[in-house]
Amino acid sequence: MPVDEVVSASARAGRGAEILARLRADRRRDRCVTHVERVPARAGTAVAWPDWADPVLLGRLRAAGVSAPWSHQVAAADAAFDGRSVVLATGTASGKSLGYLLPVLSRLLADPAARALYLAPTKALAHDQLRAIRALALTAVRAASYDGDTPPAERDWVRAHATFLLTNPDMLHRGILPRHRQFASFLRGLRFVIVDECHGYRGVFGAHVAQVLRRLRRVCARYGAEPVFVLASATVADPGVSASRLTGVEVSVIDEDGSPRGATDFVLYEPPLLLTGPTATERAERAERAAEGAGAPPGAGPAGQVGPAAGDAGGVGRGSNGAGLGADVVPDAGAVADEGDDGVGGWDGVGENGAPIRRSATAEAADLLADLVADGVRTLVFVRSRRAAEVVANSARRALGRVAPELATRVAAYRAGYLAEERRALEAGLRSGKLLGVAATSALELGVDISGLDATVIAGYPGTLASLWQQAGRAGRSGQGALAVLVARDDPLDTYLVHHPEAVFGRPVEATVFDPDNPYVLGPHLECAAAELPLTESDLALFGPAAQGVLDDLVRRGRLRRRPTGWYWTRRDRPDVDIRGVGGPPVRIVESATGRLLGTVDAATSHATVHPGAVYLHQGASFLVEELDLDEAVAFVVAATPDWTTTARDRTEIRVVETTRSWPVDDDLAVHFGTVEVTSQVVGYQRRRITTGEILGMVPLDLPPRHLRTRGVWYVVSEQLLAAARIGPADVPGAVHAAEHAAIGLLPLFATCDRWDIGGVSTALHPDTGQTTVFVYDGHPGGAGFAERGFLRIAPWLRATRDAVAACECRTGCPSCVQSPKCGNGNEPLDKLAARRLLDAVLTRLDPATAPAPAAGREQGREPSGR
Q: Is the peptide bond before 829 cis (omega within 30 degrees of 0)?
């Protein structure tokens, strides 16, 4: 059918279908489409305004075009106005903000002494809400933001006069609770606490925010206030369980979405394999992009979180009896090798050890952005890092400059790190339509009200289904049809998803996973609480069952002092706690010749990213690391333009400290969960020539080992099971290493984590188990709940792992199946075929009917049924 006829026919089916037809008219692109899901339109259910709503507020809302609320908005508003904490968990663009603004603003208008606090995970979202509130022109409501962009003079006014304060958990933790006496009048009148986008509070960050909210409740109680919590969430499994764990209070759930929705065409898209090598110029360009990605702030991954994350060293280190130890370890966190975290780099045509690779998701997304903008389609591209946002926007502008120069200026990047006025200008440009295309990090995922977008392109699975639907829902926010495209990265999970659409469209969104009782999180917050107000016996219940033991430990270490009236902070300065992560003070990067501070990397990644001899990039300029002073936490660098990149190599060992739970499947297979101690050491780095990818050699390093005590899941297999899988002794290290890499890549399908949040070790013979063992562990001290979810979902997790390996079209292994972008030993040894046979043998023994049940009080939300 001619293209014009295809477009004409599809136009009748909606805006998304029309855009998709134009894209698929390109035969190369059409071959990349693995699935199209038509998400049907939905009619809305409007209801009457509640009787208690303030008439002035209703007049303003009607004037703004809100003639009647949707059913879920009133249900949530009624609960909050009645004094019941509530979580509103409905889809993107369903109007959740009206659900909490209606009761909050009505109360503030009725009671001059009432106050409200709004918490958002990003500044962009808080400022967007502030704009919406001020647009209502309610003179009796004094709304103001209070964050790092707020000038000192304005902060004084906010403390004295604001009735509606909009901020983020970081400022609540560092700027409000430690200075609660300056906020005494505000806290005394606090009636509502709004926690927006609460599904984003997961892992260690979620545990920190949970403790910050408990500290807030404690301080409010001292001022006689007991605020109602109103939480807004994307559609997640068991939102009430997650919301209660986050706040520590009982929460009602509103999850029946009454808003209308336009039809969306959701495309799963896999970039092509690159079977021939590029020119030297193309190699140089991609290598430069890869190196730029490696210089991005480590840990700046999903949801803008900055903090230690697990990496994969993938090394063969000192296993027992020299059997070989494959490791995917924490100190390589944030390092980007080849495609890596950004998906910016990667060698076209041939990858590590000669494996084929696909065109990078970022490069494909940049081309899609340029083509869509050229067709007048308002498009938002989501990428995983700040650097990738700049690369995509620049690439699209260059492409448009060749075919439609007048459109090149209508494409921009949006990311953290811009000045406040720059962010506001970009948001205004998106709303007005002045900008047609934007490449953004997750800062624009979270609720900024931008209507009129036609398409979203998601460069790589964002880590959770909640984030995927949140990003896809940015388009079509005015109720019109839209297009969403998930472009797969060269990664096992992305490969699995684009070939198993039922894993995206046929299952519930995953539960939010975090552990407020993690002692590495709870301890520092008990110190903060004691510094704010002395802790008393009556406070312990607020902080959970682990509080007493952690307090005793803090007293033993001299961090707190026990007196008859409670526990007291012992120092003049306040505790310094980074709620975006744990792992020690950041390492400063200083230019030796000038003393200029270039940036920082977190302690957990410093050994792998700023070791002596490492190439470090800053704003397009390259530097060589001369010295890493661990005592002073500083790396000294000199300007240089080497024609090579560097990749750290690690040696890792893991020790079982305690087995908490076990599932003895049969005589040949057992699955365990418990506490492990990971010891890893950067032992050298590899140099690779930029223009050709040629390996120039290995340089040894003498850095101290790093230790991590965390939680892990592991399975052990017998020699008989290996024999049944036709895996000989010489093939065992490659089989378990490949199976471990693939399992790490697929765990985010079952837990709200990213592969950079977890690590792994595999060994042919482990001294603590006496058998062949594969470990996967949380990359955060004390654990984050991810490994536990893997233990509870072991059968579907390993089945998805096996399916991803089997579905990949490569012969010996590639980044789409068993190679890891974080592998610290060059992805050797890996045996894809043996890994598949091993997983097949394990899965034949796993009977879901006898799988472990969640421990009492530990289940963290429903999971999809195993397939």
A: yes
Summarize pLDDT for 645-681 with one digit per residue, the tens. 888 888 889 999 999 999 999 999 999 999 999 998 9
Task: Please tell me the distance from the alpha carbon of residue 722 to that of residue 717, in angstroms, as a whole number.
Answer: 7
Q: Where are the beta strands (DSSP E) in 583-643?
A: 587-591, 597-601, 615-618, 621-629, 634-639
Q: Which amino acid is it at 31?
A: R
Q: What integer best gives the mean pLDDT of the chain?
A: 83
**What are the pLDDT digits (tens) for 12-41?**
346 778 888 888 888 889 999 999 999 888
Tally Cβ neighbours within 10 Å of residue 538.
10
Tokens at 263, concatenated: 């039809």
CA 581 to chain centre: 13
* Per-residue pLDDT, 471: 87
Q: What is the pLDDT of residues 396-420, one digit of tens each?
A: 999 999 999 999 999 998 865 566 6
Strands (DSSP E) found in 383-444: 411-414, 437-440
* C-alpha distance from residue 640 to each of 283, 289, 396, 510, 587 (Å): 20, 17, 29, 46, 20
Residue 736, both tokens: 């378990």
Under 8 Å between Cβ of 342 and 772: no
Q: CB pairs under 8 A, 24+ apart, for 127-135?
A: 127/166, 127/420, 127/423, 127/424, 127/427, 128/427, 128/447, 128/448, 128/449, 129/97, 129/166, 129/196, 130/166, 132/97, 132/101, 132/449, 133/101, 133/105, 133/164, 135/64
Spatial contact of 268 and 361, defined as CB atoms under 8 Å apart? no
Nearest to 675 by CA among 713, 715, 710: 710
**Stretch among 132-141, 345-354, 569-578, 595-604 having the lowest mean pLDDT:** 345-354
d(CA 803, CA 496): 7
Angle at 296 between CA 790 and CA 373, to 5 degrees: 95
What is the per-residue pLDDT across 322-351, written as a single tens digit (0 to 9) for each?
A: 233 445 543 332 222 223 333 333 333 445
